[in-house]
Amino acid sequence: MTNYVKATISNRLVEITQQSNFPFMNNSYSRGRKPATNLNSDQYYANVKKSINRARKQIRRLLECNFTDEYAFVTLTFRKTSEFDITNIKTCHQKFAEFKKRLDYYLQKHGQPKFKYLGVIEFQDKNRHGAIHYHLVCNLINITNEELESIWTYGWANKKNTKSDIEENEKIANYLKKGITDPRLNGMKKYFHSHGLKSPITLEIDNLDEFYDALDKCQTTLLEGDTYHSAFLGETKYENYYVENAKELMEYVQDL
Prior knowledge:
Helix 1 packs antiparallel against helix 4 (166-177). The strands form 2 sheets. A 5-stranded antiparallel sheet has the order 8-1-2-10-9. It has a 5-stranded antiparallel sheet with strand order 6-3-5-4-7, with helices on both faces. The chain has helices at residues 41-66, 89-109, 145-152, 166-177, 208-216, 246-254; strands at 4-10, 13-19, 70-78, 117-124, 131-138, 155-163, 192-193, 201-204, 220-230, 234-243. Mean pLDDT is 91; it is low at 27-31. It is α+β, with helices and mostly antiparallel strands. Helix content is 33%, strand content 29%. It has 2 domains: 1-21 and 199-255, Gyrase A, domain 2 (2-Layer Sandwich), CATH 3.30.1360; 70-193, Alpha-Beta Plaits (2-Layer Sandwich), CATH 3.30.70. The chain is globular and about 60 Å long.
């Protein structure tokens, strides 16, 4: 028996979750990343798994919400150097922050939009001994690869413009997600993004049949579906849809 239904809408990506139990709320919960103290190994790795699963979903959601037309997929790589440790996350993030300052100056000077991005880091273990590189989805569609590399300064830049659609977004999201299971990222952010990105819309659904009818009118494709049991949520059914007419769906949602 389904007692609770929610929909998470990320522009054209729509997720429906049906649960036999109402959401579990822990009164001791408060926001913020907490140290993994007083956890046994099973609890620790269970939390790591949950963190990875949340990150996987959120990466795809943010991609769909914020890069709805054409976008650039960028890889930034560090060359070998003795000046700083290219395997150290904190150090590389500092270099990335310096790169953003130079890029912001360039974009402002040339009258281009502010840098909007969603990114992850990945470790290059084969032949590069854990060197860090960055994968980004961003709005740098009007800058050449040579210009971007000259602003990066720490090594190499590779950029490819792509159209936002069901196949490309699935491929790019999977590429972004493939490195977030690395244990070197445990206890750290799995992804990062610029300020001001649009967030998915999450709402409770009272009339599921009516919501399905609205989806059908938006030229819907079912991407995946699964049913599983959770100790807290009970019997749970998860469905993931892609809609061609997101505008019509949003008009329906606004009237709820």
